[in-house]
Amino acid sequence: MLTSAFYLIAFITIFFAIMVVASRNPIHSVLYLVLTFFCISAMYIFMLDATFVGMVNVIVYAGAIMVLFLYVLMMMNLNSDAEPKKSNLFKICAVISGGMLLLLIVAALQDAHLVNQTGSVVTSEKIGSIKVLGNVLYTQYQLPFEIASVLFLIAMIGSVILGKKDTSSQTIGHEILK
User: Fold this and answer.
1) Residue 19's Cα: distance from chain center in Å?
2) Which secondary-structure segment (H or E) carries 149?
3) Nearest to 4 by CA among 47, 38, 45
4) Model confidence band, residue 168 (pLDDT cutoffs 50, 70, 90)
5) Contact assessment for residue 144 and residue 136, using Cβ atoms and an 8 Å cutoff
6) Residues 149, 68: Cα–Cα separation, whole Å
7) CA–CA separation, 41 vs 50, rounded Å?
8) pTM of the model
9) How far apart are CA 23 and CA 6, in angstroms?
10) Of 73, 69, 91, 71, nearest to 82 (Cα)?
11) Which of 121, 124, 117 is nearest to 140 (CA)?
């Protein structure tokens, strides 16, 4: 039962991932990417019993980052006339590069073993545990966690400043026209 559910979710995830690349409309590509992230979150939650990681994936990737992607795409106002045409050689090189990357990932995953610092194999109960993650995050990695939060705050302030429209040049232009 668990194996068939894994294959079903994996098939749906791969289908949506292919649709991200194959879709000609960038908005549709982003929406397919959101569906791919939801399927990956389902893998985390149902297959690995990593509820925290699955929910963070939904909140961060499917929520915040995809809203940002959609906003940027809508602000760019892309149409088919503005996009350059890709040659067939470019497409063939992309397929070959993607296949080589897939082979590299498969080869690396075949030799991967989950081992903790003491040298024993990590059990599946500890991988997605919120209690273990919180303990490690707030003891061993407290300083990097706080530094990351300050950097996120600076990034938010910077995005608000950059996104703010400069009204001083507009008022000067209106005064000249009067």
Assistant:
1) 16
2) helix 142-163
3) 47
4) low
5) no
6) 19
7) 9
8) 0.51
9) 25
10) 73
11) 117
